[in-house]
Amino acid sequence: MAHSLSAKKRVKQNSKRTTINRARKSRVKTQIKHFESALDSGDAEAASEQYRLAAKKLDKTAATSTMHKKTAARKKSRLAKKLNQLKAKKG
User: Fold this and answer.
1) What is the pLDDT of residues 70-79, one digit of tens each?
2) In this model, does residue 91 exceed pLDDT 80?
3) Where are the domains of the chain?
């Protein structure tokens, strides 16, 4: 247990940050799942829209340092690759 006031404050801040970061990561994962379900349905237009939303969510999460910028870029790249494969298969 923390004894000093500053240590007690850090414990409180850390738990608050952890909750916020976990929620942000959860929202990103949910958005990626929506994108993947649109991919599975085979609808390129819906998948494109979901990709746009997922990319936006990833960028916002990376901007707040919850996720590293390069991690977000890597995830976006992998999602774009899947989307392009679907579009190539359709067209």
Assistant:
1) 999 999 999 9
2) no
3) 8-90
**Phi and psi at residue 42, in whole multiples of 5°?**
85, 10
**Cβ contacts of 52-57, under 8 Å, gap ≥ 24:** 54/28, 54/79, 55/79, 57/27, 57/28, 57/31
Encoded tokens for 5: 């006031």
Mean pLDDT of 11-36: 97
Backbone angles phi, psi at 87, to 5 degrees: -65, -40
Task: Output the DSSP codes for 12-78.
Answer: HHHHHHHHHHHHHHHHHHHHHHHHHHHHHHT-HHHHHHHHHHHHHHHHHHHHTTSS-HHHHHHHHHH
pLDDT number for residue 74:
98
* CATH fold group of domain 8-90: Methane Monooxygenase Hydroxylase; Chain G, domain 1 (1.20.58)
Sign of the alpha-carbon torsion through 75, 76, 81, 86: positive
